[in-house]
Amino acid sequence: MLLGRNNPAFGADIRTASQETIKTEVCVIGGGSGGTGAALAAARAGAKVVLLERESILGGTGTCAWVCAWRPVMGSNGIPRDLYMMMKEDPSGVSCIDYSLCGRAGRVKEGKWLPKNPSLVYEPRTFDYAAREMLEATGRCQTLLATTFCRARVEGNTIKAVEAWFAGKRLLIEADVFIDCTADGDVCADAGCEYHMGEDSKSLYNEPSAPEKAEMSLNALTLCYRITDTGVSQKPYLPKDVKSDSCPLSACYDKMPNGDVVINVVGMIKGNTILCMEHSRLMREAQRRVYAHFHAIQTQTSGKVQWNTWTISGIAPRIGVRETRRILGDCVLTENDCRAGISKQSHKDVIAIADHAIDMHGRRGQHLRLDGPYGIPYRCLLPKGVRNLMIASRAASFSHIAASSCRLQRTMMTIGQAAGNAAALAVKHRIEPRRVDVAALQARLQSQGVDITEPAQKA
Ligand SMILES: Cc1cc2nc3c(=O)[nH]c(=O)nc-3n(C[C@H](O)[C@H](O)[C@H](O)COP(=O)(O)OP(=O)(O)OC[C@H]3O[C@@H](n4cnc5c(N)ncnc54)[C@H](O)[C@@H]3O)c2cc1C
What is the number of domains present in the chain? Predict the structure, then answer.
């Protein structure tokens, strides 16, 4: 059946014929790690929330790109811990570990680096189910799945509403505060905020590891895949036209709760490809590399693990993107912050801590361990130029180098928790997020279990 303008029987375009306006206090756009944390925190703090997510599942990169492993990182005792407790109720949903162990990336004791702690691995469905349960329990969050943000309606320096699409219907969401959690900073960019992409020049933030000149070099892309042990010998498979050596071998192997393994080939495809290759071609190339990678590890004889009884049981529906835009905020977190650590930083508005290594999967491939946690200032969540907009995702105001340390899922969820609480305070007191009493925000976060100072070192 022909629909739309060209169908005389139908008359009007189905899309323009159907529009709904929703009014709320806080609108969170993007339901990944940052968005889940932001929506949950704002709703728990008493605000009326609408959460928009273009997929039919929450969790973003973690659930849709199958990056379903929480690497150890300090500062993960707020909403991530609550979510873990909820996920743990599903006996096959999460790798059963002592949560306190995966709460730190590792530590230096008497000049020695102590061994790395375990990652926490979860089933994507379990994250989604637990997050939905927790959001529903607030009674204040309307979660709109399969709904795509497309435009910010800006008047002066204020976002009045965002436009989104759901199944041919246009939605207009009006709110007091908007939180951009799209990972690419789409709302901020559409609202006219300034942003950076790629490597920053040394002179911009005076970072010791930065190159002299800014360079468009993004962290590598990875299409994760999942393998299952069949228990019987498998014939290695390589589609025609795919070369076995066409994919780098270095990869992270995460054991899922049911014994499957999810493989994340760290440098699978150059990051800049996302900017210059049409997406279906990119996915096709990434799929070829998945087959090449598995064929290579299955046929190698020297590896520690033999994969000859294993088979590919799935390829993630979405490619994992580590880096795109970084929105310019009131403060930029830099390598100098990460290296200095919280005791030497001078920021008075720390709302989260992190200690993951600086881990750049770009052309330099640097990996630099940190000696302890650093603080992330609240001002990194406040994009310049728009008064009622916040950002809580990997696109927040970080330098290229700092982002490579703090982009971890639980850190994003924790900055989301800070943004959600701040948005609720702003709504309650009828002020801009920029005017929120930072000491009150910090006290509130601490009462929710968030670490904003260095926790005492345990032996
Ligand atoms: C290959 C790879 C490996 C990684 N390894 C790890 C790891 O082991 N452990 C770890 O903790 N971190 C890891 N990371 C980093 C981490 O996964 C990401 O940095 C983190 O998930 C980003 O969280 P986010 O909330 O910023 O974005 P996301 O989780 O990606 O969420 C963004 C959400 O916004 C939605 N969205 C986007 N645009 C729109 C729109 N227009 N309308 C509606 N919704 C929209 C998306 O669908 C998505 O759900 C890895 C990343 C990659 C790519």
Answer: 2
